[in-house]
Design goal:
Number of strands: 12
Helix content: 40-55%
Strand content: 5-15%
Distance between the termini: 83 Å
Number of domains: 3
Order of helices and strands: HEHHHEEHHHEHHEEEHEHHEHEHEHHEH
Radius of gyration: 31 Å
Strand order of the largest sheet: 6-8-7-9-10
């Protein structure tokens, strides 16, 4: 048996990937040399000729298959540069009759083609879902977390990547489990004297301190844009919690204004809100952004990741609304890597002079 054969088989056994994998013959040789700690030891054990013999044996075993339309490595004897690693076939671990019994409600094709997925934990999950589906006719719709705890003894399973991938594999939707993902509640302030049916304008603010400033200004009837509701977005949290608005407030035509930090992260939050809720009437709260730029006295450098698509989106909105001056200001701040935090807006700074819409 060629000496390097077992070394390479051990290396392939460490692969977590169970589908075929493309390999480079030069990298495989380098792996063997590295394992031996020196090129001298590699040569002592037969060097390239012994490596060649090992590759040929792995090819004969069906573990390695040369890629079609390949190129030679320029060595003697010649080996193709690129190869496919073919993982060993694994026998099915689950009883075929039991899989057939469940196939009327659950898709099991992924497990038939990849027996490595056939674990005891996975079978227990599938059994739990199957028995629920068989008796779900009169079950009530409850939260995703409640159903997750009932079926998997883990309230977070269905909300995590592993749980979502599991449902996708078996072809079952959250709705099939009589479960739904509820919007997360957020902090909001309703204008005194207003009823829920009176609401048509909503202001979403990113930061807590400015939320409290807006509440004070609303009480004085001095808040720009005259919203009937102020929502504390809590930074990126609003991206997940915003859907709760439509569960709590009456169905109506709402006009939403958004104001956050002037920086890549603030623009990203606004961009994703519009992408996730495309049929909602959103606008930037331009008068407040104008005031932030007007009163900012310090240059604060920003190190956030910059997504040019987000900037382009913001620029297009401002341009379409004829807000050319603030558009240029926003673009310049972006180029100079300068941010303006929302905390520059205080009761004091907003009281200095008037800002017109």
């Amino acid at each position: 048996m060629p000496y390097f054969y077992e070394r390479l088989k051990s290396y392939f056994h460490s692969f977590k990937q169970q589908s075929k994998k493309k390999l480079n013959i030069e990298e495989l040789e380098q792996f063997v040399i590295t394992e031996l700690n020196s090129f001298a030891e590699y040569q002592k054990l037969g060097g390239y000729q012994e490596f060649y013999n090992s590759i040929q044996l792995l090819k004969k075993d069906g573990v390695l298959v040369p890629v079609k339309k390949n190129k030679p490595n320029g060595r003697d004897p010649i080996l193709p540069v690129h190869w496919w690693f073919i993982p060993p076939h694994n026998e099915s671990k689950w009883e075929a009759i039991k899989m057939l019994q469940m196939s009327d409600k659950i898709k099991l094709n992924s497990y038939k083609s990849n027996p490595l997925l056939q674990t005891e934990d996975e079978w227990n999950r599938i059994s739990s879902v199957y028995h629920f589906l068989k008796n779900s006719t009169n079950r009530e719709v409850i939260s995703r977390e409640e159903r997750s705890l009932e079926l998997f003894n883990d309230e977070k399973f269905l909300s995590e990547t592993e749980g979502r991938a599991f449902l996708s594999r078996i072809g079952v939707a959250l709705g099939d489990l009589k479960a739904e993902a509820h919007g997360e509640p957020f902090v909001f302030w309703l204008q005194p004297g207003k009823e829920l049916t009176d609401i048509n304008t909503v202001l979403i603010v990113e930061n807590k301190s400015f939320f409290h400033t807006c509440v004070k200004l609303m009480r004085r009837n001095e808040l720009l844009l005259n919203p009937q509701v102020i929502i504390y977005g809590e930074g990126k949290h609003i991206e997940n919690s915003f859907s709760f608005f439509f569960e709590m407030f009456p169905k109506n035509e709402y006009h939403f204004y958004y104001v956050g930090d002037i920086d890549p992260e603030g623009w990203g939050i606004y961009y994703r809100l519009l992408q996730n809720f495309p049929n909602t009437n959103f606008q930037l709260a331009v008068p407040l952004y104008q005031k932030m730029i007007e009163i900012s006295k310090k240059d604060i450098t920003v190190n956030h990741h910059k997504n040019e698509n987000h900037l382009g989106f913001i620029i297009n909105e401002l341009d379409s609304r004829g807000e050319y001056e603030i558009k240029d200001n926003v673009n310049e701040l972006w180029i100079q890597n300068i941010r303006i935090p929302q905390e520059v807006l205080t009761i004091e700074t907003l009281s200095r002079g008037e800002v017109n819409e």
